[in-house]
Amino acid sequence: MEQKETPHIKPNGVEIAETILLPGDPLRAKFIAETYLDNPVQFNSVRNMFGYTGSYQGKKVSVMGTGMGMPSMSLYSWELIHVFGVKNLIRIGTCGAIQDQMNLYDIVLAMGASTDSRYVHQYDLPGEYSNIASFSLLEKAKKGADEKGFPVHVGNVLSSDIFYNADSTAIEKWRKMGILCVEMETAGLYMNAAYAGVNALTILTVSDHILRNEQTTPEERQNAFTQMMEIALGLA
Question: For residue range 7-19, what is the model confidence (pLDDT) as tens digits?
Answer without folding.
Answer: 999 999 999 999 9
